Amino acid sequence: MAETTTHVAEPTRRDFLFIATGAAAAVGGATLVWPFIQSLAPDAATVAAGAPVEVDLSPIAAGQIVKVFWRGKLIFVRNRTPEEIKAAEDVNLASLRDPQPDSARVKPDHAQWLVVYGNCTHLGCVPLGNQGEYNGWFCPCHGSVFDTSGRVRGGPAPINLPIPPYAFVSDTKIIIGQEEATA
Q: In angstroms, rounded to a whole number, what is the distance separating the alpha carbons of residues 61 and 79?
């Protein structure tokens, strides 16, 4: 019987140069193509202009207000305490300039979460949170006062802080810019 021997060629310098050149060509090609691929995506201003914003509610402590931007507008997300909710629910609606029950300003089963636009309805200033006679918002520019439901209670503001479109996707997450949650 004849004996066969296989001989494995050792890598040479030429093999190394061939692999290194191929790798450099691949990296160079990707570097050239990447800007063209990136240009197909919408720019940041377009994305920010209309894209819904997802907000994680879990780190927001009771009584805390966080600020978020959606479509270039300031949004306040407030985690109301049970005392703040009770104070907002017990208001005599006839005494309000822009009568609206607290239940119409929050989502069912989520009374602790109030989501409102963050600009005073008088001249668009940004009111200070947890301030004023009703511990809601106080606009230091012209003296408008809002309660813990964002309803105007004093000063020159003509209407309540508006409610943006938003939906709960879970108990700890909302999407601002979307009226109904999608399953």
A: 7
Phi-psi region at 14: left, alpha or beta (left = phi > 0; alpha = psi -120 to 50): alpha
Q: pLDDT at position 48, please?
A: 59
Q: Provide the phi-psi class of 164: left if phi over 0, else alpha when psi is between -120 and 50, else beta.
A: beta
Instruction: Sort 76 into a burial class: Cβ within 10 Å, 0-12 / 13-18 / 19+.
Output: buried
Angle at 167 between CA 166 and CA 173, to 5 degrees: 110
Is 142 assigned a catalytic role?
yes
Element (DSSP H or E) covering residue 69: strand 65-70
Q: Which two tokens stand for residue 27?
A: 């990296």
Mean pLDDT confidence for 14-28: 91
Which token pair is 87? 């104070």
Residue of 7, 110, 122, 142 marked active site: 142
Distance CA 71, CA 176 (A): 10
This prediction's pTM: 0.69
